[in-house]
Amino acid sequence: MALQAFAWPVRVYYEDTDAQGLVYFANYFKFMERARTEWLRSLGVEQDVLLREHRRFFVVVETQAEFLLPARFNEQLLVTVGLTDRARASFSIEQSIFRGGLDGELLCRGTTRAACLNADTLKPARLPDSIFARTRT
After folding, report:
1. Is 44 part of a structural domain of the chain?
2. Is 42 a member of any domain?
3. Is-catalytic flag, 18?
4. Is residue 9 situated within a structural domain?
5. Residues 55-84 pLDDT 10s
6. Which domain holds residue 22?
7. Domain containing 33 — which CATH number?
8. Contact 57, 120 (CB under 8 A)
9. What is the pLDDT of residues 19-50, one digit of tens each?
């Protein structure tokens, strides 16, 4: 289980739904990406600054999701992010999507592993120590 989970609200827009009025499966990954970006921002990581000043960026190297219940147009969702592991050049997180809030229905859960790459060589690069200074695994 991840420690110190971060939560980010997401509203379901019409563009997120399919012909049946349910959130299209690929859009859950978009919701998780938005929450990961805001989680990194909450840790003081601005990805454009990381690229410009440190010549590093993140790529998703592995992701998995389990879709439990559908979300519908105009629903308010809450997406959580929690660090589960970190290595020299990568980190892993757990994410969950709830209808309404943490006490709402669990709609989707998944994991993601991201690697840090050198922008010039596209090879793995050491994660800056400061990134996860405020978290525990």
Report:
1. yes
2. yes
3. yes
4. yes
5. 999 999 999 999 999 999 999 999 999 999
6. 3-118
7. 3.10.129.10
8. no
9. 999 999 999 999 999 999 999 999 999 999 99
